[in-house]
Amino acid sequence: MTGVDPAAAMLEVARQRPGTDRVRWIEGEATALDPGMADLAIMSGHVAQVIADDARWQATLDATREALRPGGRVAFESRDPAARGWEAWTRLDSLRTADDAAGGQFEWWYEVTEVVGDGARVRCEVHYRFPATGEELVSDNELRFRTRTELTRALTLAGFTVERVWGDWDRRPPGPGRPELIFVAVRA
Q: pTM of the full predicted structure?
């Protein structure tokens, strides 16, 4: 298994998880992968939105295709812009609590700072608060909310055939009330 991320800090967190001694870690982007090295590529953490620049997203899909063997699959999630999920990104509506083995208990929430193009791009702050210390960190983000049509077109341009699209991780079909677009595409 190979894990790729451009952020050294994220790789450091990932390396602390159980079983990660069996993972080859690469600091970089999909272009750092070897051609034909995999049967499956999973993009997590809404990377399809984090890569806000359309040309860079297309280059990521192109490089992912090259890293897959013929018939290989790519799977990823992206929030469905039709669900307008960012409208609930307030501290009151998005506050969550979690425990992390490395960092202890923390809270996080979203606060929207700008919506561009009826939601095509959403700028927000992600707040992380650590109750044990009172420390709060704020991460500024710009997310690209691509439609199902836009994501399908980008996959097709990269040489993939969309095999399935679900509306959430429970494999319900996309549609009203479904927050996600879960894509599975095959290298053509």
A: 0.90
